[in-house]
Amino acid sequence: MSPDLTVSIEELPVSGRDAGPYGITTGPDGALWFTMVHHGRIGRMTPGGELTSHQLDPASCGPTVIASGPDGALWFTEYQSHRIGRITTAGEIGSFALPSPDAGPFGIAAGADGAMWFTETNAGRIGRITTGGEVTEFPLPVPGAFPSAIAAGPDGAMWFTMNQADAIGRIGLDGDVTVHPLPTAGAAPVGITAGADGAMWFVEIGAGRIGRITTGGRIDEFPLPDRGARPHAIAVDGHGDCWFTEWGANRVGRITPDGRIDGYGLPTPASEPHGIAAGPDGTIWVALEIGALARLTPSGPR
């Protein structure tokens, strides 16, 4: 990517400071859908700035990560109520209980098999839910791994971070799990996404690094200029670059496939950037826990 690329940043208020916008994704309707973890709401914002929101029941359910499903709806984890939620683009809401008590579901993503796959942080399991609500759970071979984010890989499997095990996991659609330990102790990986280069990219919140793992298990790590930046979530754009939130540094970073890293400071101090998603129009959207969405618009040679 050209060093002449510039990024303009606009912050759009979506809630009070205590609502906690957290996860964000682009929906099948071209709008941005996001969770408000502390108020139990799902928000929707069009690229033009039109805002609506939907109240969940109970309000204390703790909606966390949200993703588009194969059925044209949005699916999200309810971390506090240990359920998986579903909302249509028309605002119809459903919710499904999990077999494991106190599972702590966090990450969620659509799989190649037409189901949604999710992590259970407290139970140490990977879950699968069909669009009809049937749940299957797969235990992990590493106790206390705290599986966090999950994403579909180019090999048809699901890849996930094991935050407390300093490892990346892979689960086949048959439930077979492979664990890839990371070279760096205390890496504590969180966000993960499929890159445009056929590899998985992830963030190491504990070590201040961006990681890359091939489907064959080769791992590369790229240190951030600010090792205390606390990178949290990561998403790929239409040009093949990965964008990530730096929760501890109040920045959004970008890494190219060849490992070049740039950072962009957010306008409001201590805005607590969490979820990140590529928008439908070449923009990057970030959920700020202070009650806003940030829209980053890159411009210049690509």
Automatic annotation (TrEMBL):
<comment type="subunit">
    <text>Monomer.</text>
</comment>
<keyword id="KW-0046">Antibiotic resistance</keyword>
<dbReference type="GO" id="GO:0030288">
    <property type="term" value="C:outer membrane-bounded periplasmic space"/>
</dbReference>
<dbReference type="GO" id="GO:0016787">
    <property type="term" value="F:hydrolase activity"/>
</dbReference>
<dbReference type="Pfam" id="PF24684">
    <property type="entry name" value="Vgb_lyase"/>
</dbReference>
<dbReference type="GO" id="GO:0000287">
    <property type="term" value="F:magnesium ion binding"/>
</dbReference>
<feature type="binding site">
    <location>
        <position position="272"/>
    </location>
    <ligand>
        <name>Mg(2+)</name>
    </ligand>
</feature>
<keyword id="KW-0456">Lyase</keyword>
<feature type="binding site">
    <location>
        <position position="289"/>
    </location>
    <ligand>
        <name>Mg(2+)</name>
    </ligand>
</feature>
<keyword id="KW-0378">Hydrolase</keyword>
<keyword id="KW-0460">Magnesium</keyword>
<keyword id="KW-0479">Metal-binding</keyword>
<dbReference type="InterPro" id="IPR015943">
    <property type="entry name" value="WD40/YVTN_repeat-like_dom_sf"/>
</dbReference>
<feature type="active site" description="Proton acceptor">
    <location>
        <position position="274"/>
    </location>
</feature>
<feature type="binding site">
    <location>
        <position position="232"/>
    </location>
    <ligand>
        <name>substrate</name>
    </ligand>
</feature>
<protein>
    <recommendedName>
        <fullName>Virginiamycin B lyase</fullName>
        <ecNumber>4.2.99.-</ecNumber>
    </recommendedName>
</protein>
<dbReference type="InterPro" id="IPR051344">
    <property type="entry name" value="Vgb"/>
</dbReference>
<dbReference type="GO" id="GO:0017001">
    <property type="term" value="P:antibiotic catabolic process"/>
</dbReference>
<dbReference type="GO" id="GO:0046677">
    <property type="term" value="P:response to antibiotic"/>
</dbReference>
<comment type="function">
    <text>Inactivates the type B streptogramin antibiotics by linearizing the lactone ring at the ester linkage, generating a free phenylglycine carboxylate and converting the threonyl moiety into 2-amino-butenoic acid.</text>
</comment>
<dbReference type="InterPro" id="IPR011217">
    <property type="entry name" value="Vgb_bact"/>
</dbReference>
<dbReference type="GO" id="GO:0016835">
    <property type="term" value="F:carbon-oxygen lyase activity"/>
</dbReference>
<comment type="similarity">
    <text>Belongs to the Vgb family.</text>
</comment>
